[in-house]
Amino acid sequence: MKTFKIGGIHPQDNKLSKSVRIENIPIPEQVIIPLDQHIGAPSTPIVAVGDKVKVGQLIGKASGFMSANTHSSVSGTISKIDTYIDSFGYKKPAVYINVEGDEWLEGIDTSNQLVPNYALSSKEIIQKITDAGIVGLGGACFPTHIKLCPPPNCKIDTLIINAVECEPYLTHNHQLMIEKGEEIIVGISILMKALEVDKAIIGIENNKADAIEYLEKITRLHENIEVLPLKTKYPQGGEKQLIQACTNREVKSGAIPASVGVVVQNVATVFAVYEAVQLNKPLIDVFVTITGPELLHPGNFKIRIGTSLSDALKMAGGTPENTGKIIGGGPMMGRAFLTTDIPATKRSSGLLLLPEKQAKRLEPSTCIRCGKCVYACPMGLEPFLLGRLSELKIWDKLEESHVTDCIECGSCMFTCPSHRPILDYVRMGKSEVMSIIKSRVTK
Ligand code: SF4
Ligand code: SF4
Hints:
Elements: E1 23-24, E2 30-34, E3 44-45, E4 52-53, E5 58-61, E6 70-71, E7 76-85, E8 91-99, H1 122-131, H2 144-147, E9 158-162, H3 172-195, E10 200-205, H4 209-218, E11 225-230, H5 239-247, E12 262-266, H6 267-279, E13 285-291, E14 299-304, H7 309-315, E15 323-328, E16 335-337, E17 350-355, H8 356-359, H9 372-376, H10 383-391, H11 395-400, H12 411-415, H13 422-442
Parallel strand pairs: 1-14, 9-10, 9-12, 10-11, 13-17
Antiparallel strand pairs: 2-8, 3-5, 4-7, 5-6, 7-8, 13-14, 15-16, 15-17
Helix pairs in contact: 1-3, 3-4, 3-6, 10-13
Bound molecules: iron/sulfur cluster (2 copies).
């Protein structure tokens, strides 16, 4: 069975919310909608305090090439345009809305019926995706319309759908495929039209047998869409790892997938594209796994953007008393949150609550040069060296050692018998080196 070639690990999958049907989180009394839910410049607010808005209405306009539109996820009155404190304690721009009813913008199809047919050109599809503020929902939040317009020297021949969900604990993408498989297949054909390609591969790990069987069944009549079961191995959802597993093509250091003729889209993004193009629905809600070993009801939820994660957490049983760590995302690539009193955004994919015992990191000891981190690294790097260079702040050597190739998967730290916080150091060093490179380029 296919997989990527270098490194990788096999953490326990802990999919506690597997097969739990997606539930809607109730609409709250107030939402805080951040204007920076994507890579690039925050959108510019186009509403004022006191304005009435409807569900799906544009409230923030993309401000520049690398940006995305922001829409209201509720109907109500704009109460404030201000900042909010994000999950890491930083102030970010946001629009506050007091909710009144649930009135949707005219033209958005809320019937919940499958809409299979479309007759749009590639250009029209990309425009709809741009208007709808769609971004990559695999965590990167890269504006989707930019990914659909690769550089002219790159000839795209294959669309890969990232249906891997290799992070332990996370299950919402798996459940989405079970519940919305037909919509996802329509979304794939729309993206194929947008890219003008005649081949799509759904890369999915073999631990999702029910989803594989279902997708194979509903793609029987779609000769150009292949469902490709992959060997379960972390981090198969990494873009470069997935491309290699599905096509045997290698994206070189510093290059983008389009350089090998591929565009990758996450399965939740594909569903958002379906909704944008077929239902005229902008990106106003996200699918999130809320989970943890001590949680009463770990599950998969659909949350209106701007809803407090604390409110959403109540649906999963609330915060257990012995919670030692709150993680946004999965345990491997996720980041520790200071609080859950923050709004759900396009970046939200998981909320993991670990009990104190599991959250505690073991005391690190000296590196014993065992090389396990090197074997585990899917990017062929030397994590022990990157960690040490970061620790010593030797930025030029760190850059020469390709720290910018690190995908922050955490495989190195997972395998380290000395419990060294390699990922923390590498992340810190990578961010420093990236800002050095940026200032060099803009000089
Ligand atoms: S160095 Fe980066 S890419 Fe390599 S295993 Fe560690 S986190 Fe993953
Ligand atoms: S796995 Fe840990 S102990 Fe082994 S070489 Fe890497 S950093 Fe050192």
